[in-house]
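FORM 7B - TANDEM STRUCTURE REPORT

SECTION 1: FIRST PROTEIN
SEQUENCE AND TOKENS:
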Amino acid sequence: MNLWRQAADLARAGAPGALATVARTAGSTPVAAGAKMLVGAADRVAGTVGGGCVEADVIRAALEAQARAAPALVTHHLNADLAGDLGLSCGGTVDIFVEPLVAGAGYVEALERAAAADAGCVTTAIDWSGGPRKAFAPLGTDTAGPAAAISPDGRDLIERFAPAPRVIVFGAGHVGAGIARAAAAAGFRVVVVDDRAEFAAAGRFPAEVTTAVSTPDDAIARFAPGAGDAVVIATRGHREDARILDRLAASPAGYVGLLGSRRKRAVLTAALTAAGVPAAALARVRVPVGLAIGAVTPEEIAVSVVAELIAWRRDPSRGG
């Protein structure tokens, strides 16, 4: 369940709660603008705005906001001592907007629309002297812009969000399943494809992971990997890997990785080059997939792959 939905449910029920959002940062800080934390009647319910002393202070501010039925913009100066507690090399400043959840129809509707949307913009008034004001607007294909910012006139908190990148994992064996679980935990939207129903069973994965019992060709047609998608090929055989790579090496997918050794890369590259796959397309494929951390077990390999996916997510030029 996403945090917008949890906040909407609390607000609609009239239950005590507050939403804290990192509105602005400067210098070295533990989280980026847009990070959110939901506070219930007494403590954190979900999310984080940095942990440690910052989070404890924000929880106190959230409880005060609930009691006053009014929001607050809280500023934290991360001096050397606090920065050290948070594992930072230097200090910074964090402005966190803390708003009590209210049951007003317009307010709850904005939360619910945000919860149901893949992308959107939420605008919340910072001053509630005239009553709470929160509005949602959908975003088009252009989702560029900061995740959160205070409007130039200082009146509103403006939040923009877009879907997390999608990771399509071909192969639901031990390694493929481990990659899928780790990618989901890291916040990616994950699809797992396998032609064996017992391996692509939904019960093997977290609820947010999409499973598909399908041939690779049907899955490629169904999910159509694009520039915002990553593909990880981890099937049970070289022949299946080669078929998928033949289809996806030159695809628009932003990242293509193949589980295997350098020797496997050489063999498949030679075969696919002979079959007419462009050399530039094959050169961008990550083989062996994942960061070189000496991973051996399926769990270690999953960590190395998802670490590389995170690097690609933060800098898409790393995709190849």
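SECTION 2: SECOND PROTEIN
SEQUENCE AND TOKENS:
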Amino acid sequence: MDESDGRAERFEENRTHLRAVAYRMLGSLSEADDAVQEAWLRFGRSDASGIQNLGGWLTTVVARVCLDMLRSRNSRREEPLSAHGSASIVSHEGGIDPEQEALLADSVGLALLVVLETLAPPERLAFVLHDMFAMPFDEIAPIVGRSPAAARQLASRARRRVQGAPTYSSADRDRHREVVEAFLAASRGGDFGALLALLDPEVVLRADPTAVVVGATKLVTGAQAVAKTFAGRARIARLALIDGAPGAVWAQGGKPRVVFAFTITGRKIDAIDLIADPDHVGRLDLEILPTSPG
């Protein structure tokens, strides 16, 4: 690709914005970088002279790439694949600006990402682009293959899901802490029956790419399979608050290595996410808790 026309510089001006869009769409920094990289490649193959609004054009490209990735992920019923490539070709020398990383992490909490994961891909795209980045519905509509009115409805449905997510009261936190403590105790003791009693029949255990590399299974579904995975294990996992929600942490040398994020409804565990990516773990608000007596 001939970069004499200043493509790299023009792309770089939009990179931070594109990465923010992709991260909110995908909930994975490695996949967000993949989406931005794909946008860079498509930009390189395009006739740049015909692009009047480069920021809008690139945002649309990234959105389409993310939508395809979400649909592919859903069709396989699995979590994001391991990163295929490096960071963007036109990234800053020395990597991502730490200040920009911090701003990105602060702007999207774990709780919101969990809610976004429950949305259908078109709903998620419409909500993210409109509510978070103020893209008009007439520009969103072609990306999702709907009319502007239908795109508006997608965002509205998503907004109700996000706004309708239950607030986390102290009673919820106490109840969920009891569930997590019971889960950890049953896991350490190898109490298969107790584990089953705590798990929703359709519970999902998901591991991020870093956790998979160190031996975790990417996706485990169903109470029986998840109970078998944990029975007799999690011996050194510690009860913790993860962005204010009860969960667990495995630490080594005083440094958190793996975070166990639980999604709990009532007294049943719906999902467990194993987060081992150091960047992701480093941005979480973690507080190790003492185990309740008795």
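SECTION 3: OBSERVATIONS ON SECOND PROTEIN
Confidence is low (pLDDT under 50) at residues 77-106.
The chain has 13 helices and seven strands.

SECTION 4: SIGNATURE
Preparer initials: ____
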